Amino acid sequence: MKVIVDAMSGDNAPLEIIKGAMLAVKEFGISVLLVGDKTKIDKCTTENKIKLESTEIVHTDGIITMCDDAKSVLKEKADSSMGVGFKLLNDGAGDAFVSAGNTGAVTVGATLITKRIKGIKRPAIASIMPSSTKPFLLMDCGANSECRAEFLYQFGLMGSLYMKHIMKYDNPTVALANNGSEETKGTPVVKEAYNLMKNAPYNFIGNIEGRGIPYGDADVVVADGFTGNLVLKTYEGVAKVLMSGIKDAFMKNALSKLSYLGVKNGLDEMKKQFDYKEYGGAVLLGVKKPVIKAHGSADARTFKNAIKQAVWFVESDLITKIEAYISNE
C-alpha cells in the first residue's frame, strides 16, 4: 500500500509530517510518497538525521496556507503540495491521500478533484471522537455548513458503514444531533431528516441532545457542518479545561500531590481516552478515493495515526461498500 502525503501543509510541516510518515512506514509496513519542496525536505531530513525508508519524493514549489482561499487548490495553487497530491491520487500513484492543511482546501480538492461517489449528494468530514464508554463518529464536522435533509440521511448511512467496517461495531446506532429528544424538536431541515432516517436501512435511534453525546449514547452522531464543527471544537476545549483543572487541583499542596500518586494510573488512562491524537484527524466520506484530513497542529504521533486511518480505509474497501448501498437505494 502506498500513501500520498502532503509534506508541506500544517503548523509543524515538514518536520513532524516526515517523522510521522516514517513512523507509519515502520509500524504499518506501507510505502509513502512525499509531495513538497524537495530542497526543504532534504534539508529537514539531513538536519534532523531522519532516514527516509520506502519513500519517494515528488517535487512541488507551492504551499496552500491556512489563510488561502479554499478554491485556490483548483487554479491559483493547483501546483501546490496539496493540489499535486490530489492529482497523484486521481492518477493512481497512491492508494490514499493525507494532508494536515487548510480544511476548506482539502474539502474542495476531495469534492472537485477526487470527486464524489455517484449518488452521494455531499461528502462530509467524519471525526472519531471519545466518549465515556467507547469512540463514536461525528459527522459532518465542517464540510457543509448548511444541509438539506437528504444530506443528513446519507451522512447517517456512510457513518454507519464506517463504524461497522472500520471500527468493527455490530449494528452501530445512528442519532441526529438536536436540541431535544422529541421527534417534533429542531429546525424544519432536522425534522425532515428525522422522518427520512426513520425508514433508513441503518440503526437510527432518534435525536440526541448535546449532553448525551459525551456518554456515547450513539455510535454515529449526525449534524450539519456548522453544528458538528461547533460540537467538535467545544468538546476539545472542555476536555483540555477539565484535564488542566484536575492537574491544578492535585498540585495545590504536598498532601494533594501525594494523593495524586494513588489515582495517577486512572488519570493517565482518562487522558489517553480523550486525546484527539489517538486518531490523528478526520476522513472525507463520500468521495471516490480515501482522503484524510489530519489535525493542522499535528505532531509526528498524530500524523502517524492519521495515516493509520488511511490504512484502515483502504483495507476495509469502504468506498466500494458505500457505492453498493447507494446504487441499491
Identify the notable features of this structure and list them briefly.
329 residues, eleven-stranded mixed beta sheet, 11 strands, 16% strand
Topology:
Elements: E1 2-6, H1 15-28, E2 31-36, H2 38-47, E3 55-59, H3 81-90, E4 96-99, H4 103-115, E5 124-129, E6 136-139, H5 149-165, E7 173-177, H6 188-197, E8 203-208, E9 220-222, H7 225-250, H8 254-273, E10 281-285, E11 291-294, H9 300-316, H10 318-327
Parallel strand pairs: 1-2, 1-4, 2-3, 4-11, 6-9, 7-8, 7-9
Antiparallel strand pairs: 5-6, 5-10, 10-11
Question: What kind of sheet is the major sheet?
Answer: 11 strands, mixed
Question: What is the mean predicted local confidence, pLDDT?
Answer: 93
SS-derived structural category? alpha/beta
Instruction: Please write the string of helix (H) and strand (E) elements.
Output: EHEHEHEHEEHEHEEHHEEHH
Helical stretch tally: 10
Query: What is the CA-atom radius of gyration, in angstroms?
Result: 20 Å
Strand order of the largest sheet: 3-2-1-4-11-10-5-6-9-7-8
Overall body shape: globular
Helix content: 40-55%
Could you give the distance between the termini? 32 Å
Provide an overview of this structure.
The chain is an alpha/beta fold and 329 residues long. Helix content is 45%, strand content 16%. The protein contains 10 helices and 11 strands. The chain has helices at residues 15-28, 38-47, 81-90, 103-115, 149-165, 188-197, 225-250, 254-273, 300-316, 318-327; strands at 2-6, 31-36, 55-59, 96-99, 124-129, 136-139, 173-177, 203-208, 220-222, 281-285, 291-294. Strands 3-2-1-4-11-10-5-6-9-7-8 form an 11-stranded mixed beta sheet, sandwiched between helices. Helix 1 packs across helix 9 (300-316) and helix 3 runs parallel beside helix 4. It is globular.
